[in-house]
Amino acid sequence: MSASGQDWPLWEVFIRSRQGLDHKHVGSLHAADAAQAIALARDVYTRRQEGVSIWVVPSAAITASDPGQKAENFDPMASKIYRHPTFYDIPDEIGHM
Amino acid sequence: MNDQGRVSQDDLLCLADSCLLLGHRLSEWCGHGPILEEDIALTNCALDLLGQCRRLYQLVAAREGGGQTEDRLAYLRDPDAFGNVPLAALPNGDYAQTMLRAWMLGLWFSVVWERLASAADAELAAIARDAVKEAHGLVRHAGGWVVRFGDGTEESRHRLLAAAERLAHWIVALEEIDVAGIPGARIALEVAERAREVAERANLPPFTAAHPSPLDPVEARRELLAEMQALPRQHPEAVW
User: How high is the pLDDT of residue B218?
Assistant: First the structure.
């Protein structure tokens, strides 16, 4: 493989499976534009009947949380048990929540 | 058994051989594609064609009887006995030539399979109904590249036009090939009609037989089959 693929933008691929209701992230690929990304995603990710619908999103359009802030973003919750209402009894009539 | 409406063995072999040779040509790019994603996509197209030729060879073998098999038809037949359309055997050349040829043959197969999908020959019609979707996929994939090359950079456009010049003679020659009772001129007319939109977007001039082609489909087929048939000929008992 040549390095020319690095010139093509990266796309994140989401597939809705036969049984699924929502599109799930399955991976990423390089493509010149959105239409080609869909076409290539079909070959890379759905050739074994995994899906019935494909979304592609430019990877550059995704804003991600900073892994360096992982501790301040996510750690405090665990120590504050009042954030996790696990000790309430849910009346049977409510069913699953 | 009812032989009514059956397409001739020669016609079946024309289709099977064309699928096999084009599929083999596309498979030659496997591992050499411009990027991984395209490598997978084109190899999928090659596998589609291989699947189609297998079903056709199986049908030919079953109708011929006498111990004929799909493998014998593909691997042990004399290269000069193959009945493929010449365009299918030509070498890949660069990616522009590969895609232009695949696009044109994809269109040709689309027209043929759509017609045969309602053929009186029920077994062939079943194959055609499956193959038509795959032929459309090949047209979409290769046609997309034809537009990109024609409407891309100076270099890509130059490559596409050079490929068109090399292939034009054999593209025009498709009109001489009648398949399963469908006149070649009729198929070619339909192909030209369907090619128009992509050709316009790629700013691709009409193909003309005026250009002599430097490519020799008979020689190309001999070379391809010499390589493909070498192993089964040397080791007839070899199995996976």
Answer: 97
Q: What is the pLDDT of residue A76?
A: 67
Closest residue to A4, CB basis, from B34, B40, B140: B34
Domain count of chain A?
A: 1
Asked whether residue A90 is domain-assigned, the answer is: no
Residue of B nearest to A30 (CA): B37
What is the predicted pLDDT for the residue at A75? 73
What burial letters (b/e) apply to B80-102, b meaning 16+ CB within 10 Å?
Answer: eebbbbbbbbbbbbebbbbbbbb
- Which range marks the domain in which residue A29 is found? 10-64
Q: Which residues of B touch A31 (CB under 8 A)?
A: 37
**Contacts A44 to B, Cβ<8 Å:** 37, 40-41
Which residues on A lie below 8 Å from B38 (Cβ)?
A: 40
The predicted complex's ipTM stands at 0.71
The domain spanning residue A58 has which CATH number? 3.10.20.520
CB contact under 8 A, B36 and A5: yes
Please say whether the beta carbons of B226 and B79 come within 8 A: yes
Q: What is the pLDDT of residue B225?
A: 97
* CA-based nearest distance A83→chain B, Å: 45
> For residue B181, what are the CA distances in angstroms to B20, B163, B185, B193?
21, 31, 12, 20
Domain residue limits, chain B: 9-234
- The CATH architecture annotation of domain B9-234 reads Up-down Bundle (1.20)
